[in-house]
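> @MW can you paste both from yesterday?
MW: sure, first one:
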Amino acid sequence: MRKQSTFGKVVEFFDQRFRWHTFPTVLGVLALIGVRNTLRARNLFSTTKGSGTKAPVPAPPRHLVARTTDGSYNDLDHPAMGMAGTRFGRNVPLELTKPEVPPRLFTPNPRTISETLLLRHEFKPATTLNVLAAAWLQFETRDWFSHGTDMEHPIRVPRPAGDDWPTDPMEWPSTPKDHTNHATDGSATFLNTETHWWDASQIYGSVPEFEQAIRTGVGGRVRIREDGLIDVDPALLGTSGGRDGWWVGLELMHTLFMREHNAICDRLAASYSSWTDDQLFEKARLINAALIAKIHTVEWTPAILGHPVLHIAMRANWWGLAEERVHNLVGRLSSSDLISGIPGSPTDHHGVPYAMTEEFVAVYRMHPLIPDDYEIRDAVTGAVTENLQFTDLHGLSSRPVLERASASNVFFSLGVANPGALRLHNNPRFMHRLERADGHLIDLAAIDVLRSRERGVPRYNDFRRLMHMAPVRSFDELGDDPETVAQLREVYDDNLEDVDLAVGMLGEQLPRGFGFSDTAFRIFVLMASRRLKSDRFFGVDFNAKVYTPEGMAWIDGNDMSSVIVRHFPELAPAVRGVRNAFAPWPLP
């Protein structure tokens, strides 16, 4: 842990008393820089000691200019950093990350929390977003992390009195253990089955078998059927969740960016006719992954965090304070990421080996975004053609809906509809009694609570203190109405310190324009920059020599709307005039 700067201390003082998001815009931007610098100095912790993980021998020189399947050799001096199968890092001191054990693990009972505080009774919409924003987030998290699940050693949760769950205890999957960890002090580490890098591994996989299954072996292209839908088993593509997490929104995102991969291959082949299948595939992956990262940074994030400071800050992450117009005219003005953006600036791990963190996973539990009910509409007339529930779009039911209604109509239907707001009492109904593909019944909302306890993520008020925020002083700060406040008091036996992170983040008052909590945002502002700044392919190797001039132009010249229109030109009228593809589209 590095020393906090004087600037950081000043910002922390004023932020705790007045909150950065209430400052005038310019001061808010400066405050946010101070918050990020403090978090970089005090909230990055490595878990790699004693892991013994080694990277495979590469096939030089391809790993120098292309992403490897397993994420190795991104950092050439530490080739195992960030590769699949390595440990999650932490954003809180390691001595404070010991997993909870019974009876604390079950206090209060996660099922009681799920039914009393999280379950949706009436849909609360997030009116500034569309459902594509929800699908996009799931698409992205499948790139970033997965712990896998262990049903051979389930967590046996006592069934609350009066609950109608069919078994007692309730048996839900546990997180697989890290068998390389031989610590005797009660600390625990966990492994990421995916690469830690922002490399579109949700499309391309983190193991050779996955990668080979999606490739055609010709022209660098991936498998798309003649009807334009993906020609891959969803159970394979959905490695972090398998068919249990697959649904029509996720299939649309995979379809869109697998088609985009093939379009990039065609562009590259036109300029480099001698390139092999491998060369075209690897370069197209590099370009496609960067375009996805750009869309998330400058479109999805400002859509869900609609605050003027964030609009400046996230665009500055990509283009710097010099902004996009200067970038397009003259390129970088400076090596400084503050002036000219992180992509193309010097790579920096800020003194700690790069890894996704358990706290990052915890704050990205945003299941309320998913609606239970859907209207399928005609993209030309806007007329409703079907009323469906999530279960009609889930798992292997996804493909028949796309074949029946057409991918463009479903895309339009999600584009004009609102997702759920990230608030208490708004978790999807279907998740509270969800049957997995293996037949096991789970309550996903209860498991969200259980996972943070199981993995040693601090509870809400402790988490805020560790993020250098003031703790909440009253349950009144965590409810939108007196009934919810009373429920919080009852469930947590009037003990604020017991409130779970997931519950507190959904209950706290949101900054203006924010779609999720300021508590979650503290991890976001740290890690959103870090996963760009630590990645060689967004740092020193983000240039025309590695990406090709055509690749750099492709990244610069495209956004979510242009990608949608390229592959679904019939949707051009729907997105015309829409400034952000993740905002609600107008009905005809």
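MW: second:
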Amino acid sequence: MKSLKVGWLVVASAIVFTLLFYKQALGLNLLIYEILILSWLVVDRAVNLKNKLHLLGFSAVVLTAIFTVLHHSTLSFFVNFLSFFLLVGSIAAPEIRSLAYVSLNSVSTFVIAQGLFPKEISLKNKRNSRFSFRFRRIRIFLIPLIIILVFISIYSASNPKFGAYFSWFFDQLGQFIITLLNYLEINAMLVLIFGIMLGSFFFIRRKNQTAIERDNAHTDLLFRKKVRKNSIFRLLSLVNEYRAAVFLFLSLNALLLFLNIMDISYVWFNFKWEGQYLKDFVHQGTYLLLISILVSMILVLYFFRKNLNFYPKNALLKRLSYIWIFQNAILVVSVGIRNWYYIQYYALAYKRIAIVFFLLLCLFALFTVFLKISKVRSAYFMIRTNANALLIVLVISSAFNWDRIIAYYNFSKSNSSFVHLNYLATLADSALPYLDQPLEKVRTMDQRQMERFSKSSFGSSDESSVGGSFSYYKRVYLDPLQYVNTIKYRKMAFIKKWEAKGWLEWNMAEAQAYDLVTND
């Protein structure tokens, strides 16, 4: 009976899913659905909040579900789905301690659950019932009947006289199928099937033994593997590895010191903006930082993977490693300053905001490298800790309505920053009240920007080349009238769309936007 209950629980959840989401946009319905699922998991004692990953996943799902209603952003939806995906994986195998192996367990659980669902709703526990007996008899003859119909259709297509005898039957069968599909509404059936797939994932959970074994095979601490006393060659090999590591970190520190001195001099204190476009200025620094941190992690993981951690004379190597980590942190600050200049002169955009969170993750990653050396931690510790940090940062980043922040900030800084009208015109509907600007204000801003930015940043200063910089600027970017009309049409479409929404599609961001644009 237990399997029967689980199977029909999946069916019930799929029906609720269909009622909440069929012909409905995401909004309050997502919060209601996830509250119901989470409540059942708590009542069923599947969630153990004393388990760190359960607590992390559960908190992430609850917070991002609230953020989706508050901000209605693509980021909040994505992080919410990711959090729920990881939560189910951790619930299915509470022994796992790392999100990396939890994700592996989540994938296998989702796939396996789809195959187990038909068995969970089968009537195998009622074989003696009259209904079960009739169902089995129908099933025995159903497959041969389908095969016979397939061959009749093949023969009918190859021989018109043969097909004439069955044309009436196929006409009636086709009409029946069309009527049935119209009655069932194929889109509703697809939503129901998707609900069954999600319900199977939530309630028919299975452990991936391989993921559990791999996770349990690792520890946060490294332990010394004692070398036999007569193993002279191994000791010499360790000494040579130590010398190679010291030489390598000395060289790398010297190179990075030279780079950091240049960055501190040029970027920190003597940077002058002369109209140049700063995209490459920031992106090249970001790519360099990413490569540098990845290389530093790989080197530390390699040289401090075994007994070099316990070598009595490794103090110099540790100091050089700490200096290398510190210099990478300086590189993080340099990229942050580059990004700040980019925002200062070219305002906010998704990628510029993403770089800020990326830099925070880089600093944390460097801190875990420091802990790995100083506390003799394992590579597993670094992967596990940084994966947790990544999820936390994603949750924090989804706590803000970035479209609204970008629109407000960019127009408020239009006296000093370039306002990319094409980009702003694509922001979410929740930002429409801040995107809606008077035509005269946009024209004044546009004129000021042409004087400051167009010749130096968006085209050649040679007026004879490709129509000149002014023509290039006007051709590539929306002019004020085009922008204002675009926002005007978007407002009209948004008002119509919002007024057609039901209460299940409600979200606070668009509700506030509707009130502002209609009361303007």
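> thanks! Confidence is low (pLDDT under 50) at residues 229-235, 456-473.
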